[in-house]
Amino acid sequence: MAESFSFEISSKLPNTLARSGVITTPHGTIETPAFIPVGTKATLKALTPEQLKATGAQAVLANAYHLFLRPGHEIIDAAGGIHTFMNWSGPTFTDSGGFQVMSLGAGFKKVIDMSGEGPENVTKKKEKLAWIDDDGVRFKSHLDGSLHKFTPELSMQIQHGIGADITFAFDELTTLHHDYHYQVESLERRTHPWAVRSLAEHQRLNAERTHRPPQALFGVIQGANYEDLRRRSAKFLGGMNFDGYGLGGALEKKNIGEIVRWMCEELPEDKPRHMLGISEPDDIFACIENGADTFDCVSPARVGRNGALYTRHGRVNIRRAEFMRDFRSFDETCDCYTCQNYTRAYLHHLFRSGELLANTLATIHNERFIVKLVDDIRESIKDGSFHELKRSFLADYYAGRV
For the chain, what are the domain ranges? Predict the structure, then answer.
């Protein structure tokens, strides 16, 4: 376990795996469950770190792949680490870069549409940019086509150079198009051996880099939709000296809660669990109920920049003509900076005019909406009202009303 890192459970919800707690890092605490916004390139697009903090975000996650390519982890390290580099004083995460290496290289997604064709056709509309073997992944940069190779050791060196409080072991992203035999091979020949190698390199770097705060490492569980593989992976990684666990891999949305439960039932109860790449309200409730503690996702900011704003009754396209002369606050129940200061008509005008401020105000609102939703879920675990909140929120959100 990394020094200065700990996790304490403060309450549990009866007859579920849901719990609230506190993660302690060298740069502060995270009350869980918590949503962690994604600042891919050491910034959440369109927001300053100060604006992000004002949404209630407790931590931010940056991406090792993108920061490796630009500006380079050595530059961030020379700047004093990501906290100094991006002027963020709170806790930070970095993912391993494995998802981007494979997703950008082969068009893979975390949640796969099973109506698609086989894995050999995933990349048929684009040049293949990634090649995997048992040692690591070779890939072409999506920026300039230059050739690189990620190994577990390099991933850890990049993440230590970036300096995040919580890092993730390098793993292979499989898809639901890969069959059972491939999923077994992936675990046994790559994800699990790579976890061993990641942990060894992480421990070496923590011991060597005493001029920086110690960093924590989460192992990443794979196994697609297969219960035996998810449990096997969770048992294997749960027996290692990781500080926490990433619940990763491609999965079918309809089974997300069940898959999370399979993993969490096998994992040590006293270590935090981070669900990689989830932000839809129904997924959040399902994952928390089955044992997940933290989440990250680019979606709230991304859809916001496209004019889709969250409300209690679902997402709304602020570009619609009906908002042209609507001088009410976008959401009168929301306490975010955007809703406290700007009207629907003004937001509509900004988007229709192509003004950059539209991205900022929409992102502030969407990030605050999801952060607050998870904050409310955390409180509902503490006071026992979780099931009532889940029922009422999801009934309203997916009812299709504006």
Answer: 6-297, 305-397
Whose structure tokens read 């100060």?
Answer: 50
Residue 127: predicted pLDDT: 60
Which pTM does this prediction carry? Answer: 0.94
Catalytic residue among 171, 283, 293, 296: 296
158 contacts 97 by C-beta, under 8 angstroms: yes
Residue in 77, 95, 243, 331 annotated catalytic: 95
Assign a CATH topology to domain 6-297.
Answer: TIM Barrel (3.20.20)
| Catalytic-residue membership of 135 | no
The DSSP code sequence of 127-169 is ---EEE-SS-EEEE-TTT--EEEE-HHHHHHHHHHHT-SEEE-
Are 222 and 262 contacting, i.e. CB atoms less than 8 angstroms apart?
Answer: no
Residue 334 and residue 365: Cα distance in Å, rounded?
Answer: 8
Residue 95 annotated among the catalytic residues of the structure:
yes
pLDDT in tens, 96-134: 988 777 666 554 444 433 333 344 444 444 566 788 999
